[in-house]
Amino acid sequence: MNGGAQVLLVAILLLDVSLAASARMAVLIRAFALQAALVAVLALVLDGFANPHAWAVASGTFLLKAVLIPYFLDRAGERTHAGKERTPAISYGASLLLAAAGMALSFALAARLPETVQRSGALLGAAAFATMFIGLLLLVSRGTALAQATGYLVLENGIFLFGLGLLNHMPLLVEMGILLDVFVGTFVMGIVVYNIHRTFDHIDVRVLTALREGEEREEVSEEGT
Amino acid sequence: MILTALVLGPFLMGALAWTLPRRTARRKALVAASLLQLLLTGMAMKIGPEPEWGGALALDPLGRLFLGVTTLLFAASAVYTFGYMALHRHPRKRHYVPVLLCFLGSMTLATLSQHMGLFWVALEATTLSSAPLVFFDRSEKSLEAAWKYLILCSVGIALALAGTFFLALALPPGGKGSLLVADLAARAAEMSAPWLKVGFLFLLVGYGTKMGLAPMHTWLPDAHAEAPPPVSALLSGALLNCAFLGILRILPILNAAGLSSFARTPLLAFGFLSMTAGTAFLVRQPDYKRLLAYSSVEHMGILAVGVGLGSAQGTFGALLHAVNHSLAKGLFFFAAGMVFLLTGTKAVAEVRGLLGRAPLAAALLLAGFFAITGTPPFGLFVSEFILLAATFSTGHPLLAALFLTLLAGAFTAMGAVVLPMVFGSARDLAGQPFSRRHAWLLGAPAVSLGILSLALGLWIPRGILSLLKAGATLVAGGPP
What we know:
The complex is a heterodimer of chains A (225) and B (480).
Chain A: H1 3-21, H2 25-47, H3 52-79, H4 92-111, H5 121-141, H6 145-164, H7 172-200
Chain B: H1 2-19, H2 23-47, H3 61-87, H4 96-112, H5 116-134, H6 140-170, H7 181-186, H8 193-211, H9 219-226, H10 229-256, H11 260-282, H12 288-308, H13 312-343, H14 354-357, H15 359-372, H16 379-392, H17 397-422, H18 436-458, H19 462-476
């Protein structure tokens, strides 16, 4: 594995830390966008600049994940006045500690990976696991719908890192399909977030509990199906 | 050519429907598109087309089975939509028909794809195209349900994508590996076992989430209960099957690698857990649409148990059960939608004595109850009986006893909720009785599904029987 890839992977890991600790929605989106851009460049570095397939995947990733999706998220953030999340389920300090622990675990896991991925080095595996972990951490710890959507996207970034060494297994059609799904997914999530904001005047999905089984069992919906 | 048409047709019709200005025109386009799809499906089954897209799109026995059920249920649901939306007050939104057709297109792609990556793309597309249908009426509860559905299923399916990548990593390095199911099964012996195992677990949890297996099922009752009934019928009857198909596609690979016993334990565990959780929430369930949703969790558990047994007989039973469940659940959701139109409430406690006031809806509800609980002579009785026999032949009578107890529990719990709704002392209805035309539009799809469910209980046509056998051989590796 060459030095350029190593630098990129370390940068991706650093962004994971910053994602775990950012309270402001705008910062969270920037960090995600930057990370996606790095993943796109990494696709080129790992699979060779001469490979047209790698170029297609890299430019698709860059365009959708580093430009369009962050733009959408930013707009949704402004419209719903997302700003800062003050009371995450797991405090930012604790999140940082968990992130550190998760990274240590990721390196331990990656070191035990079978030979097949050693081509890209254990660092790629570690970065992929760590990014997946941070995505899940965001999903669990944050209450606002937009931060959760960002968590999903970060998780997807991590999984995509795993896929990077596998470009020759995936037809371009499938790679593009995956990107398109992520893009449309963000779009649909944005619509739901916007509607949640319009209906409830906030986007804290933790307080949406009308459907929880066992609570308010008597007053089962009078309103529409 | 014909497979491509099957996949792209609904998307094109959806785009076309979007341009139509009047909603009755859009609904007519929906019915037309669904009938066209039914026709194309029939033609495809008859001619047995060559694989397309470099082998990624093909019609194998499993695909035939699930494609047939999906298309049939969709046609019934399209006709039902016509009646339901005419009577139900809802926001004037243009997207219903176009999005519903995209949903059909992505489900069709899922049933036809032979490539693990393409299947993933299709299944994620089904989530995205059905979420806007879940919060169709923009109520607070439907928004909550849609958000939960989107996030939980997207995250679950993201794990399945990781699992798909792990399958690719399991292939020996060097050479151009493909993720076509047949190629993977052919090379299973050279694949690295640890990666294959990890990949299977990720895929099982991922697609299991989408299939509604406990404990990942928490989104399901919300989404299925809040969606409009024609959509609920598709979510329960067609979409859950597609997710199940994802699990069925991996099993031959594990069998070929000699890991079939590794696959069985988690399948059985998820299966029995889902049966238990589903049945537990049926007990005194206050909302009749949630009742149907929890019953889906229970039936998905039965399917997981069926394939988890590992025998060809169990797999055969599970496949038959999947078909029967789709028909019966479609009927039941259609009946529940009629009850909702008549009473304006989803609360079980406020629906009493329907038989006196609305005999058609009451009779269909009753038929739905008998069909879904596997009362003879409905089809589910046959498949549950085969599955019970398959559990006995594993040599673990305790397993069979547990299976039987849970089935009986579900029957009792559901009966205690549904029977007072049908019989009991009659209450005045909040809504208008159906006109003759609407009774036809709502009743005919439900009755047709009921007749099919009944017919499958009495006699399985030779064509379907050979499909089921071929499917079971494919998944379990031997003839039933």
